[in-house]
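Methods — Computational structure assignment.
A single polypeptide chain was analysed. Its primary sequence is given first, followed by the predicted tertiary structure written as C-alpha cells.
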Amino acid sequence: MSRFEAEIARLGPWFHNLHLPDGTETCPDHWLGDFPRFKWERLKDHIPADLRGSTVLDIGCNAGFYSIELAKRGATVTALDVDAHYLTQARWAADVWGLRDRIQFERAQVYSLARDPRRWDLILFLGVLYHLRYPALGLDIVSRCAAKTLIIQSLSMPGETPESMPADLELSNREPLTRPDWPKLSFVERSLAQDQTNWWVPNQSCIEAMVRSTGFRVVSRPLDEFYVCEPDPSNASNMWPWNEAEYWAAVGGKGGTETAERGKEHEPSATA
C-alpha cells in the first residue's frame, strides 16, 4: 500500500489524476482517462524544457498538475483557483514533490487580475474561458498579464475556420453572420453537462478572433481546443489602441492595485 493512499482518500474527490513520485495516482479511474496527462503529452513540446528564470501563471490550476510540471522545469509559478478544495489538493501535491518553494497558490477570480501590476512570461488559461460570465473581459484581463506566451484551452463547438474575415460589414448586408465559419459564441442559459457555470460554447473562429482582438495571435494548435498565442501589436484587430478606456471603466478605473484586498487566500500547507 502506498504511503499516499490515505491522504489521497482524505483529500478527494480529485479531478486531476496526478502521478505521484512513487507511481501512485490520485484518480486512476478518471472518466476522461489519464487526465490531464494525455493532454500534457501533446502540449509539453510547445513549452520550453528549461524554464529557469521564467514566471508562469496557471489560471484555474485545479489540483496543480500543470503548475507542478512547469515548476519541475524550473519556473516560478503562481497558481490561481477559486476553489479552496482544489487548492488544498494542489498544495499537498506540491509538498509531495518538494516544489512548494516554486509555486505560490492564490484563491482568486480571474477578474481580480484586472489591475494587478504583475506580468508573467507564460500564462496557462485552460478550461476557464467558457466558465466566465464575462468571457471577453476575462480574456482582456488575462492578455494584459501575459508578457510572452498565452496558452488557451476552451470547450468549443464544431465550426470551420475562415481564411479571412471582412474588414467591415454593411448594415444592410448581415448575411455573412450566418456563415458556418463566422465567429460564434453560443450562450447556455441553463446548464451544460449539469454545470451551470458552462455559460458559453465558442467555435474555433470565435476563439481565434477574440485572441486577435486582445492584440495576440495564434502561433500553434498543439491539440484539439488548445491555442498557443503570442503578442502581435501590429494586428489591426487589436482593441487596446482605441478601446482601452472601456476596459478601465469595466474594471473600476485605471491606477492603483488592490492586491491585498482582492480575495487571495493563503492556506497553510496540507501536510503541516
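Note: The two ends are 23 Å apart (CA to CA).
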